[in-house]
Amino acid sequence: MKWINSKMVLVVSLATLVSISACGGGDSEKVKPVSETKEAVKAAPENIAVAENSAGAELYKTKTCFTCHGMDGKTPILPQYPNIAGQTAEYALQQMIDIKAGTRANGMTAAMKGIMHLVSDEEMKLLAEYVSTFPRREGGLSMAEDSEGAKLFKTKTCFTCHGADGKTPLLPNYPKIEGQSAEYALQQMQDIKSGVRNNAQTAAMKGIMHLVTDEEIATLATYMSTLVK
Amino acid sequence: MKKSTLLILTALLLTIMPLSAQQHWMNEGGERENALNLKPDLENGLDVFEVCSGCHLPEGWGSKEGTFPQIAGQLAPVSIKQLADIRELNRDNPTMYPFALPRSIGGPQALADVVAYMENLPMNPDNGKGEWAAGTSEFKQGKKLYLDNCIQCHGNTGEGDATKFYPLIQGQHYNYMLRQFEWIRDGKRRNANPDMVKQIVGFSDKDMQMVINYVSRIPVPKEKLAPSADWLNPDFD
């Protein structure tokens, strides 16, 4: 597969996107039209937050990570794609490994799996380290807030693992979740609850998800996406 | 099947088998025994307990529907054994695992401190119960099963035995106990006492529900209970 150059990968990734948009079933209305996607890709290089001449930075471009996650890691082209800026390196690496291997296959991961054969184990490590250095969105979660979301974040025990501010996870292989895209967060909570996503550390979360209703998941997803500065 | 394929398969099986879940009641020595011999510091116990309170609540009552067990009033050696087992990966609990790690709650002294604090907490007067009230045939059958199979270790009223690491089960939430019982019967709870596994091997699902229903309805002595189900732990003011 070495003959595939990065331009072709871009085409392949976009084609995957189109096919996902076309057969997304009940969720298809949430997928942005492809024209917007192309614009986002064009706009991405101007949005460089991390100017660095490292192997990680080079890989982030050549392996086409930026096309979906944004140059700064926090401007994904679709709301169903995650912010990855400043994620813990351990968590980011595990997800890359699992998406490549197919042990994580939920949500929109098919779009990423299509290119992961181009990324070696060593490159995944470099990318995870690189992405973990990106500045995250400003602010954090606040449990002092008098909102339904803040209450749920406490009573459903989310804070015990992800931290009261959403960015001090108990273990480095647990994700930071503050300021995450609401659509992405929603999908992950649903999929971990149903078992559709069952990779890596998700068993720890699945154990409590029966306590969280679909409505509460939606409230939590919105709450997590909105930061207090 | 070709001979070589068979050989490879056998080799593969032999490699995998030692990795599969093993039943193991207890390790000798280790931090469990260290912690048992340490003098507990209740003040530090409260500090450590803050980690636990995220899920088990400041009162240590867990959740009535049984996701989180009541740990208030549990016999200290029992809690030490379970904490040590979870962090040694001798009991599978992926949700709790990181909280049980030394990096979250500290070493043997912290174990001794926190379990002493937990043991001193008053218990929930309104634990989660099974569906069969006293007087129903299921309640009676559950009681019979309990008297025939359980009292030798867990005691007449489910008070447990600290010297043998047999847990206090009176006042525990029905769904939590049912889940653990099923896991012990079916070999999923790896640190189960082998004598118990043997004792309950013939229990049907209905037997299991009836006996746990009975246990969930054993009255907890008043002196162990909080004054009301609305009691809040004043240490968390």
In brief, what are we looking at here?
The complex is a heterodimer of chains A (229) and B (237). Chain A has 229 residues and is mostly helical.
Quick one: overall form of chain A?
A: globular
Low-pLDDT runs of chain B: 11-20
At CATH level 2, the architecture of the largest domain in chain B is Orthogonal Bundle
Compute the gyration radius of chain A: what is it? 17 Å
Number of strands of chain B: 0
Largest contact between chains:
A-B, 15 and 13 residues
**Extended strand count of chain A:** 0
Ranges of chain A with pLDDT <50 over ≥5 residues?
A: 1-51
Which structural category fits the helices and strands of chain B? mainly alpha
Report the portion of residues of chain B in β strands: under 5%
Describe this structure as you would to a colleague.
- The complex is a heterodimer of chains A (229) and B (237).
- Helices cover 52% and strands 0% of the residues of chain A.
- By secondary structure, chain A is mainly alpha-helical.
- In chain A, helix 10 packs across helix 11.
- Chain A is globular and about 45 Å long.
- Chain B is an all-alpha fold.
- Chain B has two domains: 30-121, Orthogonal Bundle (Cytochrome Bc1 Complex, Chain D, domain 2); 137-224, Orthogonal Bundle (Cytochrome Bc1 Complex, Chain D, domain 2), CATH 1.10.760.10.
- Chain B has twelve helices and no strands.
- In chain B, helix 2 packs across helix 7 and helix 8 (137-149) packs across helix 12.
- The radius of gyration of chain B is 20 Å and the shape is globular.
